[in-house]
């Protein structure tokens, strides 16, 4: 039998027509002389009716099948006597005249339903079964639809889809590379690309002008909910483009995807917010603008406070800042607040000061130090009776990180983050460099090929402080999460050399790592820039999934292991010998 249509696409327009459908048995109900089967394929479910009086042979087939058997059925589409409003095909059913079993199934390791009662590890081990669950298949289909829109959008805007190498040279910056040993050149290694960054710049040197690619990237870094060791990004680059050109092109893409995939109209252009404003008001470079609860600097108001924590902090050139939790006075106890105080210590905060706004003034641990200034503070903060004021004192990053976390935490608890609100915002004018505590050195905030603002180029000269410079870089943020970022690139070899110097690279080190790029800069590199959007993360938001693991067909778990194939795994001694590699003896006895 040749399939005529998908199960979930069978419709009222086909009533009276004969169809052939094929798929998996999602549910089976035996009512004596009647057997009902919910047949599932990627499009959805349709109800099959097997009537012993109409076709005894087909009825006998239905009597043999069990859940997750693969079957085919030929029958007549008819209207249901009782409509099921919860099903897309709830107004019709198929009266089966002929059926056959295509594949049997042993009992499932877990039930194939959306509300699955199984650990994520078990689901990942049997991922092909997990993907049969309707919500998982819908996410895969949504992702596919997004990539179709992406291809159409860039094609109509004159971009070339160009593939870049996945075996390349290791140029470690930030995250660790995944390295691949060469059999032909013993002792030498390829690296899997952390991004196509260098190659897309070289494509601009080649005259490609407008490039895009849906690119696979690899980073050997610690995992969390929105990270994977291998991930996919929508990568773009444009010659002779300004930041505004690239942002407008990106907004057009987002607008098309939102409309064609979710049927949601988003207003463009998106708001622009300077990095400094985002940090000052939201405590993060990924601001969630769906709610207020902004951070306020109260340093001037408390610089002479008798509470020494505040006055000494301001005297040392640091900050005292606060947020107001609306209605938080009655909602949160001292114990609740203490839990958050313990949490922000991971940001190196020394403590969390707080007061509750009452009819007669402040109540709380530091109320006696602030009651005399209550009117001024309430006016500055917009606080009113029943609110909770949270205060953190410390360095810029300690205060921003702590209050940024608290702002998002309490907004979630108070239900201020509407999942159906889509607030895109550009974060612009980033610092060129940032200090990395983990590496103990200054690094490029985005990457070392980012062009500085023209007015800041003098900071690269001898005797100047390069860490004061800002860059022509920009991130696109959705509801408090970065989904992409980019910049204008350096196309002048002298500026690139000065940036390498500011990062502590000797000429020899820069030449050894990036000599091919430096040579391209010397051979007619046009002004250019680009951007990359994290496809996995964006689809996670579009599908309202909890993790990017839910929108990747075969993801790694939180330990960078793929349970389905048990990768990574040991290889044979012969393979190691061919690569001239040795595994230390003490490693051989460890468990995988």
Automatic annotation (TrEMBL):
What are the Aminoacyl-transfer RNA synthetases class-II family profile domain coordinates in residue numbering? 140-563
* UniProt protein name: Aspartate--tRNA ligase
Do you know which InterPro entries this protein is assigned to?
Aa-tRNA-synt_II, aa-tRNA-synth_II, aa-tRNA-synth_II/BPL/LPL, Asp-tRNA-ligase_1, Asp-tRNA-ligase_1_N, Asp/Asn-tRNA-synth_IIb, AspRS_core, GAD-like_sf
Q: Name one GO cellular component term.
A: cytoplasm
Quick one: where's region Aspartate?
197-200
Q: What is its main location?
A: cytoplasm
Q: Where in the cell is it found?
A: Cytoplasm
What GO terms describe the biological role, i.e. biological process, of this protein? aspartyl-tRNA aminoacylation
Say which domain of life the source belongs to. Answer: Bacteria
**Residues given in the record as L-aspartate binding sites:** 173, 219, 446, 489
- Origin organism is Limosilactobacillus allomucosae
- Would the keyword Chloroplast be found if you checked this record's keyword annotation? no
Q: Which Pfam family, any one, appears in the UniProt record? A: GAD
This entry's Enzyme Commission designation comes to 6.1.1.12
Q: Which NCBIfam families does the record cross-reference, listed alphabetically?
A: aspS_bact, PRK00476.1
Keywords, alphabetical: Aminoacyl-tRNA synthetase, ATP-binding, Cytoplasm, Ligase, Nucleotide-binding, Protein biosynthesis
Enzyme class label = ligase
Q: Could you give the subunit structure recorded for this chain? A: Homodimer.
Write out the residues that bind ATP.
Answer: 219-221, 228, 482, 534-537
> What one GO molecular function would you report for this record?
aspartate-tRNA ligase activity
Question: So what does this one do?
Answer: Catalyzes the attachment of L-aspartate to tRNA(Asp) in a two-step reaction: L-aspartate is first activated by ATP to form Asp-AMP and then transferred to the acceptor end of tRNA(Asp).
Q: Which reaction does it catalyse?
A: tRNA(Asp) + L-aspartate + ATP = L-aspartyl-tRNA(Asp) + AMP + diphosphate
């Amino acid at each position: 039998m040749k399939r005529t249509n998908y199960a979930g696409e069978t419709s009222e327009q086909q009533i009276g027509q004969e169809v052939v459908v094929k798929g998996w048995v999602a549910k089976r109900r035996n009512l004596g002389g009647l057997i009902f089967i919910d047949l599932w394929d990627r499009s959805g479910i349709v109800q099959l009716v097997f009537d012993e009086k109409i076709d005894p042979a087909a009825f006998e087939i239905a009597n043999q099948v069990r859940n997750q058997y693969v079957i085919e059925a030929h029958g007549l589409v008819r209207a249901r006597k009782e409509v099921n409003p919860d099903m897309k095909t709830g107004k019709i059913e198929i009266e089966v005249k002929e059926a056959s079993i295509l594949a049997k199934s042993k009992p499932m390791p877990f039930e194939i339903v959306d509300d699955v009662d199984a650990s994520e590890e078990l689901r990942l081990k049997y991922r092909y079964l997990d993907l049969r669950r309707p919500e998982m298949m819908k996410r895969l289909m949504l992702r596919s639809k997004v990539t179709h829109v992406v291809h159409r959008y860039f094609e109509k805007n004159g971009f070339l889809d160009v593939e870049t190498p996945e075996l390349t040279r290791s140029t470690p910056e930030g995250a660790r590379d995944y390295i691949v040993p060469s059999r032909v050149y013993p002792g030498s290694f390829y690296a899997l690309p952390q991004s196509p960054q260098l190659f897309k710049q070289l494509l601009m040197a080649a005259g490609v002008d407008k490039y895009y690619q849906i690119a696979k990237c690899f980073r050997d870094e610690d995992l969390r909910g929105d990270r994977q060791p291998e991930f996919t990004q929508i990568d773009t680059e444009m010659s002779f483009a300004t930041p505004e050109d690239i942002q407008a092109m990106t907004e057009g893409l987002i607008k098309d995807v939102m409309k064609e995939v979710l049927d949601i109209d988003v207003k463009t252009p998106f708001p622009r917010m300077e990095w400094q404003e985002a940090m000052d008001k939201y405590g993060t470079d990924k601001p969630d603008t769906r709610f207020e609860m902004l951070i306020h600097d109260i340093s001037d108001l408390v610089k002479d406070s008798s509470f020494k924590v505040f006055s000494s902090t301001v005297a040392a050139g640091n900050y005292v800042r606060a947020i107001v939790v609306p209605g938080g006075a009655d909602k949160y106890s001292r114990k609740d607040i203490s839990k958050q105080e313990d949490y922000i210590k991971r940001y190196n905060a020394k403590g969390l000061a707080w007061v509750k706004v009452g009819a007669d003034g402040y109540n709380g641990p530091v109320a006696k130090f602030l009651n005399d200034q209550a009117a001024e503070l309430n006016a500055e903060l917009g606080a009113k009776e029943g609110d909770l004021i949270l205060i953190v004192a410390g360095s810029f990053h300690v205060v921003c990180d702590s209050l940024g976390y608290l702002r998002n935490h309490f907004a979630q608890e108070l239900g201020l983050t509407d999942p159906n609100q889509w607030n895109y915002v550009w974060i612009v004018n980033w610092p060129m460099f940032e200090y990395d505590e983990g590496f103990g050195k200054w690094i490029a905030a985005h990457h070392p090929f980012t062009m500085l603002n023209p007015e800041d180029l003098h900071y690269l000269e001898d005797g100047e402080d390069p860490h004061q410079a800002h860059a022509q870089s920009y991130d696109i943020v959705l509801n408090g999460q970065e989904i992409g970022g980019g910049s204008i690139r350096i196309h002048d070899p002298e500026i690139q050399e000065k940036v390498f110097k500011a990062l502590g690279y000797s000429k020899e080190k820069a030449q050894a790592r990036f000599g091919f790029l430096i040579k391209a800069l010397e051979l007619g590199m046009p002004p250019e820039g680009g951007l990359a959007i994290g496809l996995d993360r964006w689809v996670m938001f579009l599908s309202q999934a909890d993790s990017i693991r839910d929108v990747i067909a075969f993801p790694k778990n939180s330990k960078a292991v793929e349970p389905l194939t048990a990768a990574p795994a040991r290889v044979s001694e012969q393979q190691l010998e061919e690569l001239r590699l040795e595994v230390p003896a003490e490693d051989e006895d460890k468990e995988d």
